[in-house]
Specification:
mainly alpha, single chain, elongated
Length: 198
């Protein structure tokens, strides 16, 4: 049983690492900086409106979609062609894990705005987001953020082998991989990761 070559997986893996880095960095930053005090209802509602106007949820969902699409392409190059269910289970496991924390990340984002900005600042920021310039910048932000994320990706490069190995083990448990399949797919993942490090 031959695995597909992983030599072409570098670009896909880089995008996967980049988006994953953004999610982990964002969730870690909010978790570490969120104070315990509760914002007042008016400020919290303005923060929700601001989060919606700035495309926070849509951007997070788009990032997740891009990450999982890239992951699927990467795994399709690594997993033996007759064991496609392994790639699907791998992707589903990681997608479930990430999707389960997204509402918490959105809520933390909203609360961070509400705690750190005054009511006037929130109203002014919201007005700017809804202005012509604000909307134009929002359309440009995906490219700007992608460039930023790509520069941050190396921060998490060292942790990715452990994360990918864990999800591979779970996917293989579900699909009754043979020991040889586990070794082969694991070796291909390691090779792809090494290619990014060089």
């Amino acid at each position: 049983m031959q695995c597909r070559p992983a030599a072409q997986s570098g670009v896909v893996l880089n995008k996967f690492l980049a988006v994953t880095a953004a999610l982990f960095i964002a969730s870690g930053a909010f978790a570490q900086t969120a104070p315990s005090d509760q914002p007042d209802p008016t400020t919290l509602e303005l923060a929700r409106q601001l989060f919606a106007a700035s495309g926070g949820q849509a951007q997070a969902q788009a990032s997740l979609h891009g990450m999982f699409a890239g992951m699927g392409k990467l795994m399709a190059q690594i997993v033996p062609s007759d064991r496609g269910a392994i790639a699907q289970a791998f992707q589903a496991d990681m997608e479930d894990a990430a999707a389960s924390v997204m509402p918490q990340i959105w809520d933390l984002s909203i609360r961070a705005y509400a705690r750190n900005l005054s009511e006037k600042e929130l109203r002014d920021y919201l007005a700017w987001e809804q202005s012509e310039s604000g909307q134009s910048i929002q359309r440009k932000l995906p490219l700007l953020k992608e460039q930023l994320i790509e520069s941050e990706a190396p921060i998490l490069a060292e942790m990715m082998p452990r994360l990918m190995q864990r999800s591979l083990e779970r996917a293989c448990d579900i699909n009754n991989c043979t020991p040889e399949e586990r070794r082969s797919i694991g070796a291909q993942m390691a090779k792809a990761l090494r290619g990014q490090a060089s």
